[in-house]
Amino acid sequence: MAPPPGGRRVSFIRFGLLHRRAVVFCALVAIFFILMQWAKLPINVSYSRRITSKRIKTVSRPAINRPNIVFVLADDYGWNDIGYHGSFIRTPNLDSLASEGVKLENYYVQPICSPSREQLMTGRYQIHYGLQHSVIMCDRPHGLPLDEVTLPQQLKKNGYSTYMVGKWHLGFFRKEYMPLQRGFDRFYGYLTGGEDYWTHRKPSQYSKDPSEYQGLDLRDQDKPVLDQNGTYSTHLFASKAIEMISNHDHSKPMFLYLPFQAVHGPLEAPKEYMEQYKSIENTLVRTYAAMVTVLDEAVGNVTRALKTHGLWDNTVFIFSTDNGAKKGKGSNWPLRGWKNTLWEGGVRAVGFVNSNLLEKKGRISDALIHISDWFPTLLRISNGSLTGTKPLDGFDVWNTISTGALSPRTEILHNIDPLKALSSLQFSYKLYSDVFNTSVYAALRSGDWKLLTGSQDRGGWKHQGPSHNMFDKPKEQPDKHIWLFNIRNDPQEKNDLSDRYPVIVLDMLEKLSAYNKTAVPPFWPPRDPRANPALHGDLWGPWI
Ligand SMILES: [Ca+2]
């Protein structure tokens, strides 16, 4: 029942003093909260502005705002053939660029030309598209499979202008395999693996196989270049790269892929550069040194052009070799082995990054990095998408390079090539073959451990320079087909530990076996006489 109206008034009168105090208390509390809100409001606004401005700053930061990407790939350039590794060869431009940026001292590539380029272009191991055997041969109908997505294709989707100058070596038997069809807007260069530096013909007098075909291999877009006979390729490619830089539309970011012919065989260098090393008696050493110095000068000229045209400040510049020096041509000292071997001399690479966009510059990185890592790394810094790509073997290592963060990579599958398996009859014993066929040519890096199996060229330690030529051969049983090394402690691969650590060997073989289960069969078609340039106007090009 409701109380009579008078009763409430009486109650107010009775407890008036108490209620007035309560009202004052409530008012004070309300004012307090209002003041608190007022006091907090500007803090929230300023916090919000700080976050917003940070976001805006992050988004607009050049590091992730589609920087220009310039990737210089040297060919068959040895570990010891750069100034900062102690070489007698003069490489002032490369030394300076590396010192300003980040030297990658635990950086790996593949041991031969095509596979390194395949993995750079796809971010995927070659076992995953059937190119685990040898290189793309100029008269065999194969190439980087067309369903593999390439780096320039992805960058182009993201608005990049894509330029390539130099050596392709990823297939051309059909037009669809050529650079313009694989993501490049501009292409000036050659399609095969090697040729004469002046005539641009493959092969020239250096060919050992008389059955190999001869022909011109130099194109501008898809047209043969007939007027550069006599222009040394390192000079030619640098001038074409500078021309593309000069003509670049600055409203778009640029991807310039510059795989020089240098310093792949044949060893040929202009006289004026040979003069710089005239005190060296060994002609091969003198010529190779001169070729490296031309390359160094070319890189200096390209970077100067990027600065002149206002592109350098927002450029990520990468220098890498595609594999170690060939035996007797260049030096991988003190590493074991050379090009076309899975020893460190074949796969541990000269590489560095220079960019104003690096957060911590002027340092050496010991982080494990592989050439397949550039694909996701460069797509990340270019705000590119991985949509449509196949499962990657590469890792995004930008933070590792830029800030020194730990590398996300802990393993590298150097290769598994079943076509290079030795006959089991050649082995008097076959250890662990129930886990992995140890007669197969393979190598795996996991942490500091490296395991090699099968038919390995034994390599050796060759120290070649202006006044010395020393060669140590490994002392091993001829039927040896398993090696285990701790690369951190023994980067020269001198102390095989496979007998001492059988559990680690077994673990590594199980990992190799797991990788092998993801492999597709190697594709190695026979030579095709229809490739002969004599049938195509003396020009190497598509024949099917
Ligand atoms: Ca090479």
Automatic annotation (TrEMBL):
Which branch of life, at top level?
A: Eukaryota
- Which SUPFAM superfamilies does the entry link to? Alkaline phosphatase-like
Q: Give the cofactors, semicolon-separated.
A: Ca(2+)
Q: Which Gene3D superfamilies match?
A: 3.30.1120.10, Alkaline Phosphatase, subunit A (3.40.720.10)
Keywords attached to this Swiss-Prot or TrEMBL record, sorted alphabetically, are: Calcium, Glycoprotein, Hydrolase, Membrane, Metal-binding, Transmembrane, Transmembrane helix
Please name the GO terms that the record assigns under molecular function: metal ion binding; sulfuric ester hydrolase activity
Q: Where are the transmembrane segments?
A: 21-39
Would you indicate the residue range of the signal peptide?
none
Give every Sulfatase N-terminal domain span: 67-381
Q: Which family does it belong to?
A: Belongs to the sulfatase family.
Its name, as the record gives it, is Arylsulfatase B-like isoform X1
Origin organism is Branchiostoma belcheri
Query: What gene does this protein come from?
Result: LOC109474711
